[in-house]
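Q: What structure does this chain adopt?
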Amino acid sequence: MSNSTSTKKATSMADLMKKAEKTAFVSPRKGDMLSGVITKLTSGEILIDINAKTDAVVLEKERNILNKILSSYVVGDKVQVQVLNPESDFGYPVVSLRRSVGDITWDRLSMLQKDQTPVEVTLDMATKGGFLATTADGISGFLPNSHTSSLQNPQGLIGSKIKVVVLELNRELNKIIFSQKQVMGPADFQKLIKNLKIGQKIDAVVSNVAPFGVFLSIPVDEQKLAEGFVHISETSWENVENISNLFKIGDKITGIVIGFDKESRRVNLSLKRLSTDPFEKKLDEFTIDKKLTAKVTRIISSGVLLDLGNNITGLIKKEKIPVKAVYKEGQEINVTISSVDKKRHRVEVVPVLTAKPIGYK
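A:
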């Protein structure tokens, strides 16, 4: 009898300990990120149960964020909050839901970008490079001039609503780039470029400079713009290492149409093809079987690169290197020209051998 009573007491005590653990209140500190459950959700008051002595109150003064909270959650939803004040003058914790709202916003943006779903934005302000634009639910981003399709006075577009897609996202930098051009379908693009032809010279304005090329705004009629692009390899016959030294946003340039990228809705241009390739004449001097002395500039996986003079690069293919030969940068060697590739501006050569090694082909 006493054993049964003892067991019941022990069990009862264990239950009480577990119950006490479950009802232990947290002591929030400023800056803490805590999990909670929404217990009240109105435009006048939002309460969150964070397992403190009292429900926490959400403080949000910005109307657009408050509207986003009201439209994104319902009572009972689990959320992450950040503690702004562990205990206000009225005795309750004050918290912010901005982090959770931000997660929802960026998740939505990622889906919009992935699916390339058109979204309506309002053009708020014109800048030198484009427009600041905002969606109906308060998502703000940048719309570059190169990704608009209108030549209308920028100030005249302020306040207007247009359809765009999310082109780029970077949460760490809080960077959102919109594109009106990407909303354009294949038929729209074809209609836009109907008067452009390969080989045609056109004037354009630099809208962006990237390490791999230059983006352009091309006027195609009195009201419409097309996006153009010049790859770094098409900017000059010379080797260009830093394209930003040659171009800046706003530069006016003339190029020649070399193709149309229907997938990217882009007109491909070349600047160098407006002039004759200066290397063609230089390469005429390099004839098959001609012997010359060249300097080793670099050892690469496919062979040895040489400076043949006049900005002409020579190559000894890996399989043409003698078995016991070792080359170093700066070393001068005697070679014989074996082939000339004018398109790639490259001359293939073979070493001049005093004796033919065994196995050399």
